[in-house]
Fold each of these.
Amino acid sequence: MADTTPRKRTLAPWMGLLLTVLGALSNGLPFIGFPAAPVPWIGLLLSLIGFVVVLLGLWRVFGQSTVYRGKLSGSIAAAFSFLFLAAAMLYFWGARHIPAESTAAPQVGQRVPDFTLPDSTGHSVSLTQLFSGSAGKEPPKGLLLVFYRGYW
């Protein structure tokens, strides 16, 4: 005699996938004003929790297959959840990786080597020209250089 009891559908794999996607999307939080320091931790934690929820859902689907259905869709959700978790882990590692200090970088108090760059009108201006001052004025004590991209 066939069992006519309808099998339930579990939402755990899909809720877990949603959490892993939210973990990946949380990396955009600094663009809306959220402090950037905890963002990699938030993304990793949400993705990890989501992946655990997906695994619990799969355990429920495959372990109690007479009660729950959704083996194929749960497996697809688990695969995508794993991809989002891997992306969150890569982002976390990249955000925490601090490059080694460059020995060629200028140090505090070190004199800047002379260079010549075009100004906003296209005329060449050297660093020594800026520090020499003009007639009747004393030379400046400091200099602020602003580098910008584009032509606006």
Amino acid sequence: MRICLLALTVFVCAIAAAAKDASQVIVWPETGDPVLRFTVLKIRQVGSYGNQHTYDIDTQVENLWPKRIPAATFRFYMFDKNKVRIGEGYIDLTNLSPHETVRMQLNCVTAGNPLTLSVAPQTLPPELQDKAPPKIVSLTVYSVPSGAKVSVDGMAAGVTPLALKLTVGGHTLQFSKEGFNTGSYPLVINPDQVSGGQVSYELGASAHDTIELRDGTLLNADVESVSATEVVVTVGGKQQTFDRNQIKRILFVQREPASQAR
């Protein structure tokens, strides 16, 4: 009996601590003219099972905008003291008049003890669309062969296979790999596109062989002959001869055999 009373006391104390004034105010959007003010009044723990906790969150929402908001949905996220997201839920607003304030009770199941809350728009009326943050879509970029360098809109992004996060709109992916022709791929991210897509790009073989000299110089040329002492190449229609010891390596392109006269 004493053990049961002790456990009950600990649980009641935990609920009482969670029910203190959270006094957190969130203004959306963070920049520009404010539209909504979210005030977290109280966070009350109403249940617990293992590391999972259920909370009721008393929240107040005020329309700071001079127009009525017919309908809007926000997602709220709960964070612990280490800024780790441990739970989430929804806030639905309907017919919110200018400067009107509504109170609501939110419910959230968390994997830990929440300390702070943030909000992010999910659906907005057309007149508020320009205040929404840009949508980010995640996708994976592949190349054939792999190991190609990728630039997105002129900025280096990494080497394939590559995970990218892109905003809605048009983008240009550029691919380059030693021994292959550079190429570009126009990509359009639609507003309704979801994350998880893939892009695959096949690089074409270079029109010329690639000769790497020991001093780091790269030549795109046609190799005419290779012997134990020298390498003869054609660059820009002119033949050049290199000492074999100057050559570090040669990458040959595959060429179709010349057709034979009948």
Amino acid sequence: MPSFRVRFLVAVWAMFACSAVTAADMYGKVENGRVSILYSDRQPDDKGYVLFMKERTGQITLTRRGQAAVTTNFQPTGQNAPRVVPSQFHGHILAAAKETNVEPALIRAVINVESGYNPQARSHAGAVGLMQLMPGTAQRYGVTNRLDPEQNIRGGARYLRDLKAMFNNNLQLVLAAYNAGEQAVIRYGKRIPPFRETVEYVPKVLSHYKKYRAADL
């Protein structure tokens, strides 16, 4: 099968065309402080790209800013499909979204990538729970039990709300700050820090966010 590549910046969802894609893996890297995405059926020649999602299929429909808006439509397979929100968390997500004016789809996408909806999840860095709150973040937002799903989701949503205000609703920077800390984003000139984990994290959450919005989950 001939190689098919589409390069675009997540910030503007650039490029013009609509093309069919079959079994294209997703690679990402930071270029000039923004995440650059490459869809390819083989490892890119540019070693700066790292693989973070495999076998994306479906239609790609992308636009350059200032031109007619069109949509992106991927049909995810296997582990790339968005997890259905467990019913015990659904109400907490909606309540936190209403309180903070943060889209439920964004909260769900963060939970999906952060913990896979495991309320007992713990990271080596000390983050805990569904939205992987660090101790300082939990204290800042009044979370006394990070393992409690309701408190954890509310605290994470409040943090997303404040990051959206801090970075003028730029979701790339919001998510970069959620992963690496707002000071890291500021230190790098309000650009995505060139940390491998963050470079992979931002487009992964954005991908799930778009799928949750499209599915209205």
